[in-house]
Amino acid sequence: MEYEAVCFDLDNTLYPYGPCNEAGKRAALSAFRERGYDFDRGRFDELYARARADAKRELRGTAASHDRFVYFKRALRIHADVHDAADAFALGEAYWDGYVAEMELFDGVEATLDALRESGLAIVVVTNLTTRVQLRKLARLGVDDRVDRLVTSEEVGREKPSALPFTAALSALDVRPSEAVMVGDNVVADVEGGNAVGMETVLFTGGTGEDPTADDLAGPRRPDHRIDELATLPEVLA
């Protein structure tokens, strides 16, 4: 292979996000009820969606925009106009405990990472969200021994598609953009972001179950390759 490193997104690239997010929400709702808040799943979803939307709008481009502790802190304020640190913390912990318990790798991840490493490539995970949560996910998935670096949006201060997460990963390995590949499921964060810094890009479509349209993949969002199974990646890059 002509490359020196492969950068992977984490969520919906190495494992499916949807089932984990649903498990986390169920666990958080149970924690709400255990702490005396009497509402159904519909009300929970309404609160969660509103708190999330507020955080995304106000904290756009930062790791905090994904922080479930922020969401639940705000949800409590919306629901009961209260500040309760213990409840907000317990809800956030419950969410992530439920989420992580549900995590399983996509088929072929371990074999793919092993094949890339055997070819002499460094493996980097370049991901949005907070460092603590992403470290926990990697530990749960059991692939951390196959990963040379983790770069999160929290530690560089900006989210993909900003150049900062990508350039931080490349700098850590002393690799030029032309010597690296970015693999991810998001045409903006991963493909547009990787293209902008001069990396080769691979769009993984096996995580979302959605088929991108021609408009989705136009201009700066056009990947060099598309795959729906990670097991095919070593052959694509050969």
Describe it for me?
This protein has 238 residues and is of the alpha/beta class. It has ten helices and six strands. A six-stranded parallel β-sheet has the order 3-2-1-4-5-6, with helices on both faces. The radius of gyration is 19 Å and the shape is elongated. The termini are close together.
Instruction: Supply the number of helical segments.
Output: 10
Q: Indicate the structural class.
A: alpha/beta
Please give the radius of gyration in angstroms.
19 Å
Mean pLDDT: 94
Distance between the termini: 5 Å
Helix content: 40-55%
So what's the overall shape? elongated
Order of helices and strands: EHHHHHEHEHHEHEEH
Would you count the extended β strands for me? 6
Unreliable spans are: none
Record the strand order, biggest sheet.
Answer: 3-2-1-4-5-6
What portion of residues belong to β-strands? Answer: 5-15%
